[in-house]
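Forwarding these from the shared drive since the link keeps breaking.
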Amino acid sequence: LLHRLEGHKGLIPCLSISPDDRFVATASADGKCRVWTINDGQMAFELNAVPTNPDPEKQKSGNGAAVNQCAFLPQKNLLATCQIHAEQDSATVFVWDVDGKICPGRHVDGTLSSWRTLPLRAGGRVLSLASSLDSENDVLLSVGGSAGDMTTFDLSTAAAAWACEGAHEVPRVPGQAANHAVAAVEALAYSKGGEFLASGGVDGAVRVWDAEDGRVVCAFGGCCDKSGAVKTIAWDGDTCLASGGVDGVVRVYSIV
């Protein structure tokens, strides 16, 4: 054991290591995201959950909202965090720099139509984040929601590159009329080269998308027995990926 990183007062559902291997970020239900230096295990700084209207001065007080996701972006040590607003049953994604300040123009919220062209559906929450670089070396940030929607943002232009409503749908039950219910997107992961984005849903399926235009490349059904959710996805290069779900089984797929 090298270090014990202590201080959070709630569940830690997510962590992320910076591209330069200097920092590890931890998201917590206590409403805070902490960034630690890996070499000595000391806390570098703390990000409190902030109000919907981002004000760097207000981050010190926080508002008690849980932080359920965090992800370092592949450029400039930017860090994305997701804050859940329990009372409004909604969520907001923020992008920070490593000094703990909100980056101007990088606030993702359904009320800012110029930035988020496809807001989460009413009652939707962000359940998954993933980031990569596109062919022009610009940062892409993908967001998966509980309402079944998925949006990929281009951080160089602060606009949505593409979006999909109903990225995953609940399978039809034999003998029953189709209800077209959406399934939450619980896992997102980019391939090593950034060409593909894989998503896993409560429908037990894994879908592979073209990262730049949102075209479906292929899909795998039955990725979790007993109609269970796919909870995590990882890539081995650009052609092989693995998924894990609530049934306790890891499945490995090839897309070629």
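-- next protein --
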Amino acid sequence: DRSVILKGAVVKVDIGVQVDGYIADAAVTISFNPSYERLVKAAKEALSKVQNILRPGVPLRNAGKIVKDVAEKWGVRPIANLSGHKVERYNLHAGKTVPNVPSWDISRAEEGEVYAVEPFMTNGEGLVVEGGEGHIYRVKSMKKVKDKELVEALNLIWRRYKSLPFSERWLLDAFEDPLDIIKRLVQKSRIYSYPALLERSGGIVTQYEDTFIVHDKEAEALVRVINLV
């Protein structure tokens, strides 16, 4: 990858790791432009405040009001159509969501559940749209195809990653042209390709994310990004 971080850029570092299917998902934003520092601070503060209220029985929609209030304090907007999500073993998006704006959802956090909380802030209008092809994929279906090469490739990908996201560069050791294999499996609806997302009005977007286990009296951060950056 020959990409270069330009002077004045805003960079989001979003990393997920798993051990035997147990997942931690985390992100930080680094601004090389002082003009966007308030966006970074707003996302970080919102994450901290949501952690403080994430307890058994608490409506998840409460997070949306907190994120919106923090955004207004900093004079920015949350991304309305992105949210945090419940995490289960080998399942990164396990049903319940943690909104970034007020919501009518009546779901509540329960003790022992795990959530990836990820406030997004922008100086744009507050919506993202699909902006072209991305480079992250996951297995969508294990239904067999007629092409023997694709069957073997799909089986290998499933053995390695099951339902978790992966990148084509992780398959360079297995295939001469992994992108060709992936594109053919996408065409067969066996692999899902995550699209790149862009703020609809062209705004800058920042993000802070951590993964929390809901305990009786606290939400335990697995990565503790607030203390890192």
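The chain has two domains: 10-126+200-227, 136-194. The radius of gyration is 19 Å.

- D.
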